[in-house]
Amino acid sequence: VRGGAAPRVTKATKMTISHMAQALNQLLKSPVAKMVQGLPQHAQLVLCAGLHLSMRSKKEMFYNQLQEAYFSICRRAHIRPEGKNEITAACSTLCDMALLGIGKGKQGLRRVTMRVSKDDVAFALQTTRFFKHLLVDELTL
Fold it and tell me: Where are the beta strands (DSSP E) in 8-141?
């Protein structure tokens, strides 16, 4: 360097996949991803259960099927599930956020429709180790 001080050499830090995911998340700033990230863990689990069911069958499922899928995921992940009233509240919240569609009818026989793509949910939850494992191993998203 002419007439100036030599440039400082700093030790380079290793770039990991987690760093890249965080950078992409900040760059893309998906509103759906932000909504999903801001949900409580059990609401995120309900969303994952809905995605699991929608991948196995059609986009539409019944409420009681969603609840059973949620309880099944909790059992496999060794997490104490919330009660049915809390799951109903979580589903209502997801519906209010336009992530789920819930039809009218008796509680267990209500039709539930996923209104969010699996890619958005996977992108939103990929930085959390628990959900990364769940999405890859359990739900094969």
Answer: 60-62, 100-102, 111-114
| Tokens 């008796």 sit on residue | 106
CA 119, CA 136: separation in Å to the nearest integer? 12
- Specify the pTM: 0.74
pLDDT of 141 reads 45
Strand order through the sheet with 111-114: 60-62, 111-114, 100-102
Rounded Cα distance between 59 and 103, Å, is 13
- pLDDT digit string (tens) for 15-51? 788 778 777 766 666 788 888 989 999 999 999 999 8
**Amino acid identity, position 50:** G
CB 30 within 8 A of CB 80: no
